[in-house]
Amino acid sequence: MAGKHDGAVRCVEFDADHGLVISGSWDCSVRCWDPRSNTLVANLRQPHKVYSMTQAGSRLVVATAQRTVNVYEKRMLVSLISFCFPTLGLAALGHSQATSLRVLFERRSTLICATR
Asked: What's the pTM value of the predicted model, to 2 decimals?
């Protein structure tokens, strides 16, 4: 077990390019784990519960409650981790460093889902 969230985990992705496990949770966070050392390397706070997440090429797309979609550049996340902890490779990324990782796009859908 790499780690845990404070709420239910809704989705998990494996980034084979960087060797990271990325999990999204209802505790309003996306966390990146290094499975080789069972270390939390980043905790990205989200505006709402995470409902879905996928990788699209070099980007991580996170869909949250309240119809918000955030897009992150995975390369920037890995560069930030390596810059902060060059001797450790992937190591724990503190809150102040994680907040400097910018969302590339933030969209709010105008569609309201309806089921019949």
From this structure: 0.69
